[in-house]
Write a structure and sequence with these properties.
This is Alpha-glucosidase. The protein is an alpha+beta fold. Bound molecules: alpha-D-glucopyranose.
């Protein structure tokens, strides 16, 4: 075993000869260190056990179901196309192997290994974490710190900064698998416009392709694509097409032929391109572990950027495999030969059925194909969790070249840590279930801990039929998520804001408008978190150390200013909210906005469907502006501040041009606002370098519920 130390004190233990995933980018220095972990090598892998004390809580693991506290459950890291996120689902589309154990001491662990890992986080044996790594070559990173915040910051520091989308990526996006042609897409946009609902863009699902072939456009349904994209852009609408991992096997299809000629695909045992079946039928999977494939596939995005496209979603990149031809044939053969004319009892019937229902994403398929890494043949199973990561890295690197200095929107379904530097993620095929709304909230801090900041779930739910109440409640949460996309599956009821009643339309319209009002704040919090390596969304326990705060599972913090407590239960007209300190109740739809100070403790809060509620912490403030129909129209001239100040509050509003990478070179704007409470008044100090802000309107409340209003204008003043 080799050991190393990173600059921020992180200890690294190397077992065997690991595959370099490049999840961590901080340089490591060799150092003799003692590992206190209980690591045991076995024939088929390695086990690690970590003792759990009764007060220990576990955080992290990114995209996974379960609580904010991950203790008492089983998880698996093996990127999988899992359409049904039921209660005991152990794995989803991504593999995020960082977690923090917090109790008497706080420690973070990152297992840098691209194959399968299972975690029993005190489920069978409450006193232990039992981890199984399906291999013997890996790194373990151990991070220590005063508290969870310090440990998560240290981790963010060593894995490098998150991907940053353009500012328009923070707008509202409508999506649906099943907008079949240009007319339907246009109709969506028009209906948004007619109903005065702000919208930034529409995602194009695979309906736009010719027979599900990547980088093609259906001439029947989307002819004149370039003009179409440009026309919509003139209206302020971006189109975001999907790209799938599998390339259709079809003579005459240029991508397939180039892939064959250039030897860019994954191989089967015999060295022939591996064949799986996905949307278009038989496909080959580009071998994204090969440099040549990365640049070849990446360059293909230009076919669409040449039409004016500036954003993509990479899908089915676990990679998802519906079936292998041979497996399907066996199932059919079994059905035909063995069971013909037989009277099936329950067991034979189940066997017959399971033969078909278990066809998708079988473990055995991932043993059947190989990548080429540095000239060596490596089975997919061993590097399985890197596929979506390397696909998206290829896209990112190509788009950086193609779009020059312009930022682009890029999300992926599958990911592992490291990919966060190249794109965001949506959390896959959830359902229109209340449980998934709650899961959406719980996942936000965990995803941040693993480096992912441009995140969001399919608002309203992907599968199943959404109703107006669920969509409204879901939006009340999604307003805060950097990626805000309403997406649903083919065959489900429509779930655009206007698909329900007039009342739902009114409520959802107001919510989307509220999102646009809050974009300066959400963008600022996003960028500051990314730039300063801290979490945008935090569990309450990261800030407050009392017993209740440690256990709260249905409230989270946004930045240092806001507490979010969404309603995740149908029929509720409000909910109990725990206030770990005095906070200001905001009712954003109310003309007054400030409802009043809530004392520390538990309070029942009225939260109607027509409202939008959140809570501002003591000595904190949030900025907002007038809403707009899309971000091109964002007007920050008149900034408004809602503040709860008892002695002193400071807020630093970050901004930049929102389109270029100049912010990396330090081209940023800041509006630093300081409010100091004096006897019966407030002293306000503003240092503003943002030329688009001309005036700031303050509304400040104190613990006694006294409201003070003030106005500061920068016009003709030296800013
Ligand atoms: C996958 C995606 C989903 C998409 C569908 C069709 O299930 O996760 O978002 O709509 O494929 O492309």
């Amino acid at each position: 075993m080799e050991s190393y130390q990173l600059k921020n004190g992180t200890k690294v233990f190397q077992y065997g000869l690991p595959i370099e995933t490049k999840a961590v980018i901080a340089p490591k220095r060799k150092m003799k260190l003692k590992c206190d972990l209980d690591v045991k090598f076995q024939k088929d892998g390695t086990t690690i056990s970590i003792e759990l004390l009764s007060e220990d809580r576990i955080y992290g693991l990114g995209e996974n179901l379960g609580g904010i506290n991950k203790r008492g459950r089983i998880y698996e890291s093996y990127c999988t196309d899992t359409p049904s996120h039921i209660e005991d689902r152990e794995k989803l589309y991504s593999a995020h192997n960082f977690f923090i154990v917090s109790g008497k001491v706080v420690r973070g662990y990152f297992i840098d290994f691209p194959g399968r890992i299972t975690y029993d986080m005190g489920y069978y044996n409450q006193k232990d974490i039992n981890i199984k790594i399906y291999g013997q070559n890996f790194y373990i990173y151990i991070l220590e710190g005063e508290d969870e915040k310090e440990v998560s910051s240290k981790f963010l520091e060593i894995i490098g900064k998150s991907y940053v989308p353009p500012k328009w990526g923070f707008g509202y996006f409508q999506s649906r698998w099943g907008y079949r042609n240009k007319e339907e897409v246009k109709k969506v946009y028009k209906t948004f416009k007619e109903n005065d609902i702000p919208i930034e863009g529409i995602y194009l699902d695979l309906d736009y392709m010719d027979n599900f072939k990547d980088f093609t456009i259906s001439q029947e349904r989307f002819s004149g694509f370039k003009e179409f994209v440009e026309d919509l852009k003139k209206e302020g609408i971006y189109l975001i097409p999907i790209i799938d991992a599998g390339v259709k096997v079809e003579n005459g299809y240029d991508i397939y032929e180039e892939g064959m000629k250039g030897d860019y695909f994954c191989k089967d045992k015999e060295g022939k391109p591996y064949e799986g079946v996905v949307w278009p039928g038989k496909v080959h999977f580009p071998d994204f572990m090969k440099k040549e494939t990365q640049s070849w596939f990446g360059d293909k995005y230009q076919k669409l950027t040449d039409c004016g496209i500036e954003g993509f979603w990479n899908d089915m990149n676990e990679p998802a495999i519906f079936y292998e031809q041979e497996a399907l044939e066996k199932a059919v053969e079994y059905a035909q030969k063995k069971l013909k004319n037989k009277n099936l009892d329950v067991f034979s019937y189940f066997k017959l059925k399971d033969n078909f229902t278990s066809l998708a994403n079988r473990d055995s398929y991932y043993k059947n194909f190989y990548h080429e890494i540095d000239g060596k043949k490596v089975c997919n199973e061993k590097v399985h969790n890197l596929y979506g990561y390397f696909m998206t890295k290829s896209t990112y690197e190509a788009l950086r070249k193609i779009l020059k200095g312009k930022r682009f929107l890029l999300i992926s379904r599958s990911s592992s840590i490291g990919m966060h530097r190249y794109g965001g993620i949506w959390t896959g095929d959830n359902s229109s279930w209340w449980f998934h709304l709650e899961q959406n909230m719980k996942m936000l801090p965990s995803l941040n801990m693993c480096g992912f900041f441009y995140i969001g779930a399919d608002t309203g739910g992907f599968g199943g039929n959404c109703n107006g109440e669920l969509l409204t409640r879901w939006l009340q949460l999604s307003i805060f998520t950097p990626l805000l996309r309403n997406h649903s599956a083919m065959g489900c009821n429509n779930q655009e804001p206007y698909a329900f009643t007039k009342k739902v339309l009114k409520n959802t319209r107001n919510l989307i408008k509220a999102r646009y009002s809050l974009i300066p704040y959400i963008y600022s919090e996003y960028m500051k978190s990314v730039n300063h390596y801290h979490l945008m969304f935090q569990p309450l326990s990261f800030e407050f150390k009392d017993v209740l705060a440690k256990e709260i599972e249905d409230q989270i913090l946004l930045g240092d200013q806001v507490m979010i407590a969404p309603v995740c239960i149908p029929n509720y007209k409000g909910r109990y909210v725990y206030f770990p300190e005095e906070m200001l109740e905001i009712s954003f739809m109310h003309p007054k906005k400030m409802i009043g100070i809530r004392k520390k403790g538990i309070h029942y809060i009225n939260y109607r469907l027509e409202d939008f509620k959140f809570f501002i912490r003591k000595n904190a403030m949030i900025p907002y502006v007038k809403s707009c129909k899309n971000l091109k129209k964002l007007d920050q001239k008149n900034l408004k501040i809602l503040a709860y100040v008892d002695n002193e509050a400071i807020y630093n509003l970050y901004d930049d041009d929102g389109i270029s990478y100049d912010f990396i070179k330090g081209k940023r704007f800041s509006t630093r606002i300081k409010i100091i409470k004096k006897e019966n008044n407030y002293e306000i100090k503003v240092h503003n370098t943002n030329p688009s802000i001309k005036n700031i309107e303050f509304k400040i409340i104190d613990s006694e519920n006294h409201i003070t209003e003030k106005d500061i204008s920068f016009i003709n003043k030296n800013q």
